[in-house]
Amino acid sequence: MKKIIALLTGGTTGEWVVSVKSAATIAQNLDPDKFDVYKIMLTQQGWFYEPADSVKIEVDRNDFSVTLKGRKIKFDGVFIAIHGSPGEDGKLQGYFDMLGVPYTTCDALTSAITMNKGYTKAIVQGIEELFVARSVQIFKNGAYKTEEIKKELKLPYFVKPNNGGSSIGMSKVTNQYDLQTALDKAFNEDNQILIEEFIEGREFTVGVVKLDGKITVLPVTEVETAKEFFDFEAKYTPGVATETTPAALKKESRERIEKIVTQVYQKLNCRGIVRIDFILQGGEGDFYFIEINTIPGQTATSFIPQQVAAMGMKLNDFYTKLIKETIG
């Protein structure tokens, strides 16, 4: 019998644009023989199902159901495709946990912790062969002194919203006099900021997922961009960055990466598909953890679809296995 799946998209942050594109890719690749899919849009105004042939129908949030032509539809599970809040920070996961509705992502606690870059780094720091850049975490209404930050960290540094994604509000600071401008930009997105030393090296990203009961590391992608860093434009504009999947890496480097990211997945108690961004210092030197995305983009230009293809798997089969593993 077909599973009834709610594909949840939209959101309440600037990342909703990416979410809508991700949901389009997922919808095209969910097997219609196995799943009845209802795309549900979540916005500041409400949660709605929009059938092609009629007006939008509001979701009953008491039990997460929709009533269609007098028939109440309840879902076997939810494919969450919302980047940023409330999809990636644990809020929706907590709601679905209370209703007993399974979903495709990490649980509420892991989602909430991993949304905070500073807290995540503190947890993964103990993993063998994993390094993190020196950093300072500051709060909007807290007492911080830019002079002390400049003393503690070596230029250049990255200034990033602690709870954001898609590189929105992020800056690379190469001149100490530009620090305050970068802080103001990041504080527009979040009330917590992470300032970290720049690590020179090659930048990579890799998907990690549990399929058929086993943690699977997808082929690694190397990211090279002519821009100062891999920002929102480089991420979502075709041609701005060069992405090589699978990355040209020595066998030993690949094995070391797989071992480290598997431990990150386990230590953070992940489930579903996550994406881990990292830098190899110099050429293929020390592994520096950058961040983890618990709801990575699934757009036509996103990394996960590229990596699934490089693994020789169809997205259709990948999503089927993902739903089987997380929803049942």
Care to describe what's here?
- A hairpin with a 7-residue loop joins strand 3 and strand 4.
- Strands 8, 13, 14, 15, 16, 17 and 18 form a seven-stranded mixed beta sheet that branches. Strands 4-3-2-1-7 form a five-stranded mixed beta sheet, covered by helices on one side.
- It folds into three domains: 103 residues, 3-Layer(aba) Sandwich (Rossmann fold), CATH 3.40.50.20; 146 residues, ATP-grasp fold, B domain (D-amino Acid Aminotransferase, Chain A, domain 1, 2-Layer Sandwich), CATH 3.30.470.20; 63 residues, 2-Layer Sandwich (Dna Ligase, domain 1), CATH 3.30.1490.
- The protein is built from ten helices and 18 strands.
- It is an alpha+beta fold and 328 residues long.
Short note summarizing the structure:
With 328 residues, the chain is of the alpha+beta class. The chain is 29% helix and 30% strand.
Q: So what's the CATH class of the largest domain?
A: Alpha Beta
The low-confidence parts are 230-236
In CATH terms, the superfamily of the largest domain is ATP-grasp fold, B domain
Q: Summarize the biggest pleated sheet.
A: 7 strands, mixed
The helix fraction, in percent, is 25-40%
Q: How far from one another are the termini?
A: 13 Å
Say how many strands there are: 18
The CATH topology of the largest domain comes to D-amino Acid Aminotransferase, Chain A, domain 1
Order of helices and strands: EHEEEEEEHHHEEHEEHEEEEHEHEEHH
The whole-angstrom Rg is 20 Å
EC number: 6.3.2.4
Pfam family, one: Dala_Dala_lig_N
GO molecular function, one term: metal ion binding
Protein name: D-alanine--D-alanine ligase
